Amino acid sequence: xxxxxxxxxxxxxxxxxxxxxxxxxxxxxxxxxxxxxxxxxxxxxxxxxxxxxxxxxxxxxxxxxxxxxxxxxxxxxxxxxxxxxxxxxxxxxxxxxxxxxxxxxxxxxxxxxxxxxxxxxxxxxxxxxxxxxxxxxxxxxxxxxxxxxxxxxxxxxxxxxxxxxxxxxxxxxxxxxxxxxxxxxxxxxxxxxxxxxxxxxxxxxxxxxxxxxxxxxxxxxxxxxxxxxxxxxxxxxxxxxxxxxxxxxxxxxxxxxxxxxxxxxxxxxxxxxxxxxxxxxxxxxxxxxxxxxxxxxxxxxxxxxxxxxxxxxxxxxxxxxxxxxxxxxxxxxxx
Amino acid sequence: xxxxxxxxxxxxxxxxxxxxxxxxxxxxxxxxxxxxxxxxxxxxxxxxxxxxxxxxxxxxxxxxxxxxxxxxxxxxxxxxxxxxxxxxxxxxxxxxxxxxxxxxxxxxxxxxxxxxxxxxxxxxxxxxxxxxxxxxxxxxxxxxxxxxxxxxxxxxxxxxxxxxxxxxxxxxxxxxxxxxxxxxxxxxxxxxxxxxxxxxxxxxxxxxxxxxxxxxxxxxxxxxxxxxxxxxxxxxxxxxxxxxxxxxxxxxxxxxxx
Amino acid sequence: xxxxxxxxxxxxxxxxxxxxxxxxxxxxxxxxxxxxxxxxxxxxxxxxxxxxxxxxxxxxxxxxxxxxxxxxxxxxxxxxxxxxxxxxxxxxxxxxxxxxxxxxxxxxxxxxxxxxxxxxxxxxxxxxxxxxxxxxxxxxxxxxxxxxxxxxxxxxxxxxxxxxxxxxxxxxxxxxxxxxxxxxxxxxxxxxxxxxxxxxxxxxxxxxxxxxxxxxxxxxxxxxxxxxxxxxxxxxxxxxxxxxxxxxxxxxxxxxxxxxxxxxxxxxxxxxxxxxxxxxxxxxxxxxxxxxxxxxxxxxxxxxxxxxxxxxxxxxxxxxx
Lengths: 335, 258, 321
Known about the structure:
The complex is a heterotrimer. By secondary structure, chain A is mostly helical. Chain A contains eleven helices and two strands.
């Protein structure tokens, strides 16, 4: 590109009629401004890449020595004893609890969240759309520690009889087998997580549904479609990539949610028997790490927790990558 | 002073797609030159190469030469920002800056280029709005948002904004296509006045408009969809509309296609 | 529900219209009655869908009302006590009533302010790169990593800062370390929201500026960013609100203190989430529970206050003069 930065043609030539030529005192630095500003933007972007790379590297570097000393199988063991002469630790319990609770959360929150988003954009009378959307946003603004507090003190006593009821009627089915734990069961945590991520699903879905081109909607209605058919043929297909990305964000949030879960979980005693029951207790990755923050005394012990954190990182990474692929593919279809 | 544009053998590409091929023409100073032709014939694309606006679209590039008097617009030492300051443009849809008042809109080009003197700005804003036949309508509400004006007024505001930076040439890309007939008439009157100070190039879909406002008319056409557009002929407007040289022009003028 | 029935009316009118039988043979009647069934089924489906949507919304409102109701009912009294807005928790045990929250309020505000100071410029510039400058592979890579970063759980961000700041560099835990973790969590929120807002700015405005001979950087700063200003502010405030309630990084990196503490770089640091967490083990005690609810309500109010301020700023930013 040009190396001329000082003089512009407009400066050289007198303006039309009696006007003075433009006094463009920053025109001269225009290109420098572009270079500085564009450069700053680029550097910021690269910084983000560097940060994420560093996260991965640092976690790996500090996890590896601890994993080398591990005398148990990291992926299949349910023991967690990272300190001492013979450290032994495995993540099976955390993996199971984390994934199961998050799955329950998604199963509950995605359909409801999408339905609420459709309500807010398509069904609600226009006078209540704004306030209603504001209420859902309010739910998103509630800090997760408040959900934890509410779950612990207000919701758990209400959930208890529901759980006993299901255990009574469906206890023969392994997933609903009674375990004697009634506080922070996987199922209970899943429900609280569902409530927490619901506004995420709703807010993002609402945004994309709102952007459905009026022409698409009117096109469907003009063909004699009912409102529901219009939604199915125009709004949902248009919003699908958005709904998927919303769900994945929500899933990522559920997988990594720390403090609410930490408030609620029932830690299992060492050597407890394995159970498929959703009414079992058990720590998630995040709660295990958070509950033991004070134990980061020696590198090996810390390394074990970092290794667990790394697995959580990979889990969310995979979720995000899947979301990305799905969105890209959908885009190719809808455009 | 308004300047002459000389185009020699210009090809325009978007990526690997050749949009316009082999255009050579001269645009006379202080006159109105109209570009007409069917949709997709490259007239708007070609127009944008006259102030290098095609470069803001990824992949846009040209081969050939565009001279503004004795300045080569595509010389390697030429700054596209400078080119655009010299060759102003008005777009199809009025696009005033929504966050700015009427005054700020007109002053935007100057301010963003570093003119801060309030008196200078006041003078140029008034002169530009007068030049765009808008002054009497807005002089009492200069601090109101520009987006609050009617479509026709917004377009004249955009013209005022364009002439406020005192360009040599004013390019107009179908400036009336989004306007009602009365606003269109106001713009056409304005174009007639502006040609006293500027070289004006106007792209239009409306042949009557070309006949009404222009001194010279260029007819663009394309052989088939996917083929590059080309200049069929350029001549005095009266000649193009009464006695064109090319059969294709006559067919288009008489409404046989397009 | 009245609108539901109102809207059903046209459908009901359509159905009998369609089943109108012209005088004549059976074949005509059969054909039309065949048509009527799918129509009725469609109308029924439409009504069912409408009911489901209303029910879903009602269902979603249950926890909201419940949570906010509980927090206000149980925490409000605390906010009316004399010391809450002025004092700290020094020498106050779980079974003691009350105490103040000023130390935690100040700490939280100071921490998120510091976080925003770092994260907002990086986030906005990255968004500007992605929308205004980025093409090709680098832009794709950045966009992808922003996605990853937005999925990084707060506890992992905290572990990362711990691994760098404490384990590798040998610094001790501090408010600053926690703020760094919050920066990581805030950046993707800012990038994504800013990106959305920049994309909403019509290209016509950029073209208009370029056509006036405005250099690109000035176009971006003075036209694009200014047009998107209100939306960006809202995004920033949502980002701040999000990190304000984050507890995991504080748990790992910024141990709580009951005292006033302004120094982000040394020693323990008071924050509202950690104040709630402090009494977690004793929630069965009425004194501790009430303090937790009070701190929770204070935190929610702060978040809401930020939202309101943001909207006001956005409002005045959008309508210039």
